[in-house]
Amino acid sequence: MRIDKLLWFLRFTPSRTLAHDWVLDGHMRVNGRRIERPGAAIKAGDVLTLPLRSGVRVIEVLNLPERRGPASEAQACYRTLDGAGENPIAAQGNELP
Q1: pTM of the complete model
Q2: Residue 93 included in any domain
Q3: Helix, coil or strand: residue 54
Q4: How do residues 23-58 score in pLDDT, each as one tens digit?
Q5: Which of 73-77's residues contact partners 24+ apart within 8 Å by CB, and which partners?
Q6: Which residues contact 57 (CB under 8 A, 6 or more apart)?
Q7: Residue 8 covered by a domain
Q8: Domains held by the chain: number
Q9: What is the pLDDT of residue 54?
Q10: Does the residue 94 lie in any domain?
Q11: I need a labelling partner for 31 at 20 to 30 A (CA). Which of 1, 16, 38, 44 fits?
Q12: Which has more confidence, 65 or 91?
C-alpha cells in the first residue's frame, strides 16, 4: 500500500493530499530509511517514524487497513513503539552521563 494512502487510512492526516505533501517534505522514515516518495510501498511489520506537531511518533504497522474507517478501526492496525503520550526517544538525547 502507498504510504500516503496508509497515513490517510490510519487517520494521521485529514486528507490524502495532505499525506502526499507530508511525505514530500522528506522528514518521514520507514524502517530507518528516509522516504520522499508518496508512492513508497508499506507492508505489515514496517516501522514508521512520523514527525507530528506534538513530537516524533514511532509506530509499527500491524496490518494494512482496507478502508478509512472509524478511529478505533484505524488504531487497531498499528502499535505505538515510543510510548503513549510520551517521547522517550527524544528524551534519550537529553540525558547527561
Answers
A1: 0.81
A2: no
A3: coil
A4: 999 999 999 999 999 999 999 999 999 998 888 999
A5: 74/9, 74/10, 74/11, 75/10, 77/9, 77/10
A6: 49, 50, 80, 82
A7: yes
A8: 1
A9: 85
A10: no
A11: 16
A12: 65
Concatenated DSSP letters of 1-24 = -BHHHHHHHTTSSSSHHHHHHHHH
The answer to whether 23 and 41 have CB atoms below 8 angstroms apart is no
The residue to which cell 516501522 is assigned: 47
C-alpha–C-alpha distance, residues 91 and 87, integer Å: 6
Residue with cell 513530537: 55
In this structure, what C-alpha cell is assigned to residue 77? Answer: 492496525
d(CA 29, CA 13): 16
Cell of 57: 511518533
Residue span of the structural domain in which 47 resides: 3-87
State the CATH number of the domain containing residue 65.
3.10.290.10
Sheet of 47-52: strand order equals 33-35, 28-30, 47-52, 55-61, 78-80
